[in-house]
């Protein structure tokens, strides 16, 4: 379960008709997020528009890419009085966190390309939701509560729960760990000691970036079962990688901030409406209200400096518009590499060395209710996380739906399955859902389709930190944004929003404009 970054690839969707590939489209699974290190990016005030010209001096900016990073940068710059144009190659905003319509045998569905979640400590993404008026559509749990079902366990011990109490850190998880049935008593004790040791690490220590998380866990007495039933249960969802393929620095950031900073930091939130409503419809309305000129189906093919020290952007059919003072490249790393002018980065080819990791989502519609929880995580099965999407998809009220239920199965780090044909995935996963959900046995499958994203996130491998650039470049007025930049976070919606805020703040500081104020005054406060 990994949460989409929302970065935009500035390219058309694989299926322009909006239908999923093989009945499938793009993917990203839920991704829990951890909290930010010190010096996190700051928010921007609401309500300021280009019309007031506050502090702008008539300056102009172009943001290339309409994912979460680009939309955030555009809003923050416009709120500071800059005249902003946002160019997106697709016919919609939202990047890799979007929805599409599907005519299903069970009824018309609004399908998210992947399940996305955030945590209470994701303060920048909460600011973004507030800023576009989407916060009521993506509420948080009152308290962390994750049902964990072990398909291989004996009856009576199949269900465990990871949940917190109201006690302070680290006691908030003590009761849950003490009764977690998927680990032995000795394993639980060793997990507690390892968690305390992890809390003493500094995620910003460059030495941690070059070390893998699995090696650290072994040195701290973690058994393969503990890695499967706890560390990878959380880590694969948040990092889109197993412990063996994850940087210790990023893993420490996730676990330390999400589970060991504040008692409520890991409470989970997710959209109860289609992502397209949050990240496209409401974002577009917020951009319009802020005075941002949004150009869709505008694929930028080149960015060049002008003789007057400004920037010009070009599409395949000619100049996009008049030159601007500032450009923010809010596109994936390979697209940014292709657009960067010579000399803009030292060793620009390092962007090409930032690898990617896939995410797969399986969408299943049953003729009856088979799951009576909002979601659960699985052990002893290829299945990772399963969410009930019946209400959010509109199926509940669709004519002819009856008692049908729509489940989304989110598979992060899905290297082995990402290219399997739909028929093979159906044969592999439907029996697993029957093992995990007794109610699915004998239920009719009314629809089964797949969404996949082969390059869903950057790969958080050891050493990736030294490859991730900051927002400023060597070229004055040119900035980078995207979850793959040096945010200190893995590839999450939180990281994408923070990158957009960081790029905007860097641009405003360089132009001697009014700096963005810290998050506050009705926006979520920093949790860490």
Written account of the structure:
The chain has helices spanning 68-79, 123-131, 174-178, 185-199, 206-209, 213-219, 224-239, 248-260, 275-289, 333-339, 422-436, 493-510; strands at 60-64, 83-87, 99-104, 107-112, 117-119, 145-150, 159-163, 268-270, 293-295, 300-305, 311-315, 318-319, 326-329, 356-366, 375-379, 385-388, 405-412, 445-458, 478-480. It is built from 12 helices and 19 strands. The protein is of the alpha/beta class. Mean pLDDT is 88; it is low at 9-56 and 514-528. It starts with 59 loop residues before the first strand and ends in an 18-residue tail after the last helix. Helix 1 packs parallel to helix 9 (275-289) and helix 7 crosses helix 8 (248-260). The strands form 5 sheets. The chain has a 7-stranded mixed β-sheet, sandwiched between helices. Helices cover 26% and strands 20% of the residues.
Structural class: alpha/beta
Residue share in β-strands: 15-25%
Give start-end ranges of low-pLDDT stretches: 9-56, 514-528
- Rg from Cα: 22 Å
Number of helices: 12
Largest sheet: 7 strands, mixed
Quaternary organisation: single chain
pLDDT averaged over residues: 88
Q: What strand order characterises the main sheet? A: 7-6-15-16-17-14-18
Give the proportion of residues in helices: 25-40%
Distance between the termini: 23 Å
Overall shape: globular
Count of DSSP strands: 19
Strand-helix topology:
Blueprint lengths: L59 E5 L3 H12 L3 E5 L11 E6 L2 E6 L4 E3 L3 H9 L13 E6 L8 E5 L10 H5 L6 H15 L6 H4 L3 H7 L4 H16 L8 H13 L7 E3 L4 H15 L3 E3 L4 E6 L5 E5 L2 E2 L6 E4 L3 H7 L16 E11 L8 E5 L5 E4 L16 E8 L9 H15 L8 E14 L19 E3 L12 H18 L18
Parallel strand pairs: 1-2, 1-13, 2-9, 6-15, 13-19
Antiparallel strand pairs: 3-4, 5-8, 6-7, 10-11, 11-12, 14-17, 14-18, 15-16, 16-17
Helix pairs in contact: 1-9, 1-12, 2-12, 7-8
